[in-house]
């Protein structure tokens, strides 16, 4: 093929991947994030009172999810690499949907802890598996764009999910159940249904995709094989060896950077509905359940827009460390300021800035590890980064709740969030100073 024909095949192949796979995997991620954060909507709307939870106990229940998740994350991602994404992601989704459904009938604090732990076990490997799956479908030149489209599902989960959860909670009394129990039931069923569909819908790799033309399959397979060989040839990129990836200092720096970003994400996700619920005491305002759901959604729509625009800039320039460092720094400064504001509108305004910062950094972050890892090393390295990062998923809600119980306010917890995001910003800029400018992604962008 000549250059024009090759470019045409490239554009059509990436377009088909963008439309065929990304929306469906993003839907899976939407349901995934909604199910793991559903507890944040249940807590201030009856669950905390019905089960007699303190803020620290609620935080522990939110965070214990990540213990089970972390224990099985790396084995799960290696299993996905071995058995294929179609089977493994579908299995994960159906399993977590069944566990999520059981929250409908939880009746004690210990039962809540147990189900949250089991939900983490069931979900283990989904997110890094989805990242790995999409990375195996697109060359480095297009990866940040594809991951940004995928990541849009996360803020949109709250934009759509918070009002949806509020509507389900307002169905209090249906089937004789409390509203928060109906909400758990309503968000669990889609996981089971979409998981079954995924078994038949997903395709493991470009060579198996009947919905691509032969030319498109050949182009994708050739480009991805070339990149894997280039990665495997470089000692700095781990030789595709999972043990080398797990021992890599660079991988561990990425893991710490991700820890800070995830700390901010989950402190916000699990406690924002509770903070909004406290507006009545703090400012003398009153909102019904649905209005609180709408307010919870407010920061996340601008965050989705910021994510898309920031990632589009990163795709044009090639992802640089400052694409992660600048948003992380903005988040570090803004999040402690939120609770210093004198009105609900000003508080939500500053929290919106924080949400925009977190979601602008996250998809661009994931474009960096994929430059240095391939094959089983990618499976192990990405899972390790996500595992260490998700320790923050346990630590953040527990420390946030414990600090709230100790001080009576969320000001100290939000200062801790700011410190964690400042660490991520510092690591991003440090990695930027020690990395070469001519990254594989930049080389690929200039060569095609």
TrEMBL record:
List the Pfam families.
MFS_1
List the CDD domains hit by this protein, alphabetically. Answer: MFS_ExuT_GudP_like (cd17319)
Membrane topology field: Multi-pass membrane protein
Question: Which cellular components does GO assign to this protein?
Answer: membrane
Q: Which residues form the signal peptide?
A: none
Tell me the InterPro entries matching this sequence: MFS, MFS_dom, MFS_trans_sf
* Residue ranges crossing the lipid bilayer per the database entry: 21-43, 55-76, 88-107, 113-134, 146-169, 181-202, 251-277, 289-310, 322-339, 345-366, 378-400, 412-431
**Keyword Transport, does the record have it?**
yes
Q: Which UniProt keywords apply?
A: Membrane, Transmembrane, Transmembrane helix, Transport
Q: Recall the GO molecular function terms of this protein's record.
A: transmembrane transporter activity
- Domain (Major facilitator superfamily (MFS) profile) ranges: 21-436
Cell location: Membrane
Function as written in the Swiss-Prot or TrEMBL entry: Component of the tartrate utilization system and may allow entry of tartrate and tartrate dehydrogenase.
- In Swiss-Prot or TrEMBL terms, this protein is called Putative tartrate transporter
């Amino acid at each position: 093929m000549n250059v024009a024909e090759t470019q045409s095949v490239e554009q059509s192949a990436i377009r088909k991947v963008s439309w065929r796979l990304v929306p469906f995997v993003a839907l899976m991620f939407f349901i995934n994030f909604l199910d793991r954060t559903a507890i944040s909507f249940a807590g201030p709307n009856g669950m905390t009172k019905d089960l007699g939870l303190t803020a620290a106990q609620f935080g522990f229940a939110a965070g214990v999810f990540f213990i089970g998740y972390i224990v099985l994350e790396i084995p799960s991602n290696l299993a996905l690499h071995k058995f294929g994404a179609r089977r493994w992601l579908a299995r994960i989704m159906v399993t977590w949907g069944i566990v999520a459904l059981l929250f409908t009938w939880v009746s004690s604090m210990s039962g809540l802890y147990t189900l949250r732990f089991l939900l983490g076990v069931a979900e283990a490997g989904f997110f890094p598996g989805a990242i790995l799956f999409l990375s195996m479908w697109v060359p480095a030149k297009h990866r940040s764009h594809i991951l940004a489209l995928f990541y849009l599902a996360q803020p949109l989960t709250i934009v759509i999910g918070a009002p949806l959860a509020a509507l389900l909670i307002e169905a209090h009394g249906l089937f004789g159940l409390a509203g928060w129990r109906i909400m758990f039931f309503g968000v669990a069923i889609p996981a089971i249904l979409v998981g079954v569909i995924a078994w038949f819908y997903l395709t493991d790799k470009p060579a198996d995709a009947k919905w691509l033309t032969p030319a498109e399959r050949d182009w994708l397979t050739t480009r991805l094989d070339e990149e894997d060989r280039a990665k495997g040839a470089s000692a700095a990129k781990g030789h595709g060896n999972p043990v080398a990836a797990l021992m890599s200092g660079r991988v561990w720096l990425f893991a710490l950077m991700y820890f800070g970003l995830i700390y901010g994400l989950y402190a916000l996700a699990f406690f924002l509905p509770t903070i909004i619920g406290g507006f009545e005491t703090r400012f003398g305002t009153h909102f019904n359940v649905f209005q609180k759901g709408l307010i919870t959604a407010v920061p996340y729509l601008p965050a989705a827009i910021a994510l898309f625009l920031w990632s589009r800039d990163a795709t044009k320039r090639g992802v640089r460390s400052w694409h992660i460092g600048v948003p992380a720094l903005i988040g570090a400064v803004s999040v402690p300021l939120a609770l210093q504001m004198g009105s609900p509108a000003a508080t939500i305004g500053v929290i919106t800035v924080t949400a925009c910062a977190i979601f602008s950094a996250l998809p661009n972050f994931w474009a960096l590890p994929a430059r240095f890892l391939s094959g089983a090393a990618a499976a192990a390295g990405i899972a390790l980064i996500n595992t260490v990062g998700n320790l923050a998923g346990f630590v953040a809600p527990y420390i946030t709740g414990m600090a709230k119980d100790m001080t009576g306010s969320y000001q100290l917890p939000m200062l801790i969030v700011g410190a964690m995001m400042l660490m991520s910003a510092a690591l991003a800029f440090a990695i930027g100073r020690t990395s070469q400018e001519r990254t594989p992604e930049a080389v690929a962008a200039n060569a095609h």
